[in-house]
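thought: fold this chain, then report.
action: predict
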Amino acid sequence: MPSASKRRYESMLFNYETTGRTDFRDGRIRPIIKTEYKPKSTCLRVRPPPLKDIEALTDWYDPNVPFDLLHKPKEIVQTNPWEVQKPYKEPEDLMREEVQATRPRVVMTPAVSLDDIEPVARKILVDDLYTTTVMKMMRESGVNPGTSLRAPLPDRPAPANPITLPKLGPPYVSPEWRMESAAWDNQQIRTYCDPTQEFWLAFKCDKCDETAEREAQRKMMRLSKRR
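observation:
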């Protein structure tokens, strides 16, 4: 049986309250307060009269003013925003052969008349003549000069379709539910154990083991001296 002093120290160090005594303190059954749904009042107003065209005096099908109503060509380039730019295609030159046969001869550096040679040889000669020194060195060294990518031309802009998203916020909880949950939460213990002696002694304490070994050695030394 533990002594009175030991029981006194244990009562000061450990709290022997159980979960049932601390968590379920109030056993009264209170009436349930039901949440009543109250619909919000709606504000109804008279529909505004439709807008009319100034020139034709007819009603517009869309009550909103069109965004591109006053769009006009630009002052300098005279481009219409509704006419989208189309990709350029080089037109076919129908008079090229006749012009090359009748115009005065042009002799370039290799002393060759460009109008009298074959089209394939003429293209090779012109490309080689108008190629820079850097490009020639890159071709000879095998370095890839890279590829030029062109962005596609923009298409006709699509009409705007605005949408509205609800504001993000916490869900609504009725006041009676919040009071009940807050009162119950305040009565809970923020620990994961019961503060009893059995719980703390279940853990391994290195200092306690060292103290026990030291006390055992001292006891053995005292017994050996007595003998």
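thought: worth noting. The chain has a mean pLDDT of 76.
final: tokens above.
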